[in-house]
Design goal:
alpha/beta; Rossmann fold; eight-stranded mixed beta sheet
């Protein structure tokens, strides 16, 4: 196994101040010559542990009308892919190449609109579920879910951004409708989405508190943008209400059903709780009693995101903030495609300290 690097998330913005030159123009980095017949891909043929993800050679798909073939350079790992690998996505037919996001360059776009070699990003829309996704050297996706990105960011940074920023931005703006001056609690603050949300929320003028099960998480969330830290032993409502009279105005719940009821109790009347993650690995709440669990006047919503949310994301602006150093990016560990099983073990153990990114070459 080759672990490329463990990148402290707060250092990414410093490295971006030393970005290597101007944004690449369309066509830069284009591979000359015809498409190869085959590619390397991590194929899931049966549910199981990380070892069931095996590198195989499979045909490179050919794009038709309304499609774009992307030469994948990097992709981030996501919890939903872990659930699918474990067999918790009965609607996914196997064998399948997983991966709900990818960044790379345009290999072919029959309809035009995107130039060969142009840097692009894509997420969701059935990737890795209804059709083969980003865990490969090439991915074929609908043209309507591809966005061009002008940037000189290294692939391991750009690869961390699409789904992470889409989830953090969408949950804060669409679901929670966060406003300047509001008090935001991020439950699961050391997750990649939690760290990104802390940075974005602070830039929006919110006061941010974040939780972690480990005392060492305090330094991480504070560097991301949180000004308050709550050690999470599964029950934080009383501590949050002590920090903030009446509780939080808004709560971004990333641990999931395991802590949701406690997060509701940590929220002031007229406040909002948004469940947007499930790192607690539990899908349901047994014997859930809404009249008991949801305090009067507290609102509960969810955010899952999709292609429309990705298209609404101010992606280029946020990428520019990453390049300029004003938006720290929590990149945790970076792996090669050949080490996809090790990358999944790291995700399953919650050991990355930020977004896990896989490079395809």
């Amino acid at each position: 196994m080759e672990l490329l690097r463990a990148v402290p998330g707060w250092l990414i913005s410093e490295r971006m101040r030393e970005a290597n030159g101007a944004p690449l123009p369309p066509g830069a980095g284009m591979n000359a010559g015809p498409l190869p017949d085959t590619m390397r891909a991590a194929v899931l043929r049966a549910p199981g542990g990380p070892e069931v993800l095996r590198i195989e050679r499979i045909p490179v798909p050919r794009p038709g009308p309304g499609q774009v073939l992307i030469r994948v350079e990097a992709f981030g790992l996501n919890r939903s892919e872990l659930f699918t690998r474990q067999g918790h996505s009965p609607g996914v037919r196997l064998p399948r190449v997983l991966g709900i996001e990818a960044v790379g360059t345009v290999a072919a776009a029959p309809d035009g609109g995107l130039a060969p070699g142009e840097r692009v990003a894509t997420v969701m829309g059935g990737m890795g579920r209804d059709f083969d996704g980003g865990y490969a050297e090439y991915v074929l996706v609908p043209a309507g879910q591809v966005r061009a990105v002008r940037t000189a960011l290294p692939w391991e940074v750009l690869g961390a951004l699409p789904e992470m920023l889409q989830t953090a931005w969408g949950a804060l703006t669409r679901a929670l409708r966060l406003a300047a001056g509001e008090r935001l609690l991020i439950r699961g603050g050391t997750t990649s989405v939690g760290l990104a949300a802390a940075a974005i929320a602070r830039a929006m003028g919110a006061e941010v508190a974040a939780t972690s099960r480990r005392p060492a998480g305090e330094a991480l969330v504070r560097r991301a943008g949180a000004t308050r830290f709550v050690l999470d032993d599964g029950v934080v409502a009383a501590a949050v209400r002590q920090e903030w009279d009446g509780g939080a105005d808004k709560v971004l719940e990333l641990v999931g059903t395991v802590t949701l009821e406690d997060s509701l109790r940590a929220t002031r009347e007229a406040g909002v709780v948004c469940m947007a993650g499930m790192v607690g690995d539990r899908w349901t709440i047994e014997r859930f009693e809404p009249m008991e669990a949801i305090p009067t006047g507290v609102l509960l919503t969810t955010y899952s995101g999709g292609v429309a949310d990705f298209l609404a994301l101010p992606l280029q602006d946020l990428v520019g903030q990453v390049e300029g150093g004003s938006l720290p990016v929590p990149v945790g560990q970076v792996f090669r495609l050949d080490d996809i099983a090790a990358a999944h073990r790291t995700m399953e153990g919650n050991a990355a300290g930020g977004k896990i990114v896989v490079l395809t070459r």
